Predict the structure.
Amino acid sequence: VRALVSRPPTGGAELIDVPPPDLGPGQVRVRVLEVGICGTDLDIVAGRYGRPPDGASYLILGHENLGVVEEGADPNGPLRPGTLVVATVRRGCGTCAFCAAGRSDFCASGNYTERGIWRANGYLAEEYVESATELVPVPAALRACAVLTEPTSVVEKAIEQGQLVWDRVAYPPGAGPRRSRALVAGAGAVGLLASLLLRLRGWDVTTIDRHGSTTLAAQLLGEAGARHVDVEAGLDALGDDRFDLVVEASGSAGLDSELLDRIATNGVLVLTGIPDASGGTPKALGAQWRRLVLANQAVVGSVNANRTHFAAAVADLGRLAGRWPGLLERLVGERRPWDDGPAVFGHRPEGTIKTALVVRGA
Ligand code: BGC
């Protein structure tokens, strides 16, 4: 079968023929429809991240997947031939307590694998096989936006983590749940999805980026009732504003550090971006960490997502589609045939929020 591969640590992207995957017990064969591209993929192709399966010379790319069940499914179960499915990304280490409990997103040993990223082949192939337990069914009505399920799952976890921390203080005795002010830093796919999910949950949302106020992202944010602020000239554009929940979705270490100054008392900063480990020297670090303690703030790193987050993502994509019809489809701004993959990795048009590579048409 054809597959789009990279060769970490060298990187690159090329379409090659690979052996078709064997169908094992409990596994399902899935035909791939489309796969979204994110910063992690760009890092792998640029030779900055990723690892092939042990002993292999290449890594099949792609983790933001959408496919259709072909064979091996339980004809009486939720997965039948023709069912739309999204596969999870991480596989547990098999040894730590978190993975044993189904929380590989909190794997403590670090010996996990991630399909399309780390020691496991991804989904940018004509087909893949996977355990039925790692596949999440998607309603056919979400076909046009379901490629956003995986990034949405990552956002679901990040917001869940932030909400858990916020909830430790957000319920004054006698009061009900409080939704307050959220800042989302970054208006790429993850930042936009975070903004939308927070709006859906009733937060007052401000989203920042450095791309001006006439972009599609700024427009979508406006339609969803979020405030967009261009911080090209710096975070001073936010005035003195501080926020109860700050969700970082830019991957900039320098910005992470600046965001500490934007957390309100009792607030929480959730980092989702994976910054370049070599970049950025945080300013006034001592003062920032000190204030972090004195104001009962929390900084929570968040990576990956488990099956429950994927299921939550599918449900929320349905709610978003109902609340803002057509908006998610515009977020997947560009669809390209996957043969264009190598070129797509090299050049992404300005203003495109999410590019999906189409492996197989409707
Ligand atoms: C993926 C996650 C993964 C992370 C780190 C992200 O792009 O969405 O599933 O855990 O990269 O590899």
Summary: The chain is about 25% helix and 25% strand. The pocket of beta-D-glucopyranose is lined by residues 38, 40, 63, 89-90, 114, 117-118, 150, 154, 303-304 (CB under 6 Å). The CA atoms of residues 204 and 295 lie 21 Å apart. The mean pLDDT is 90.
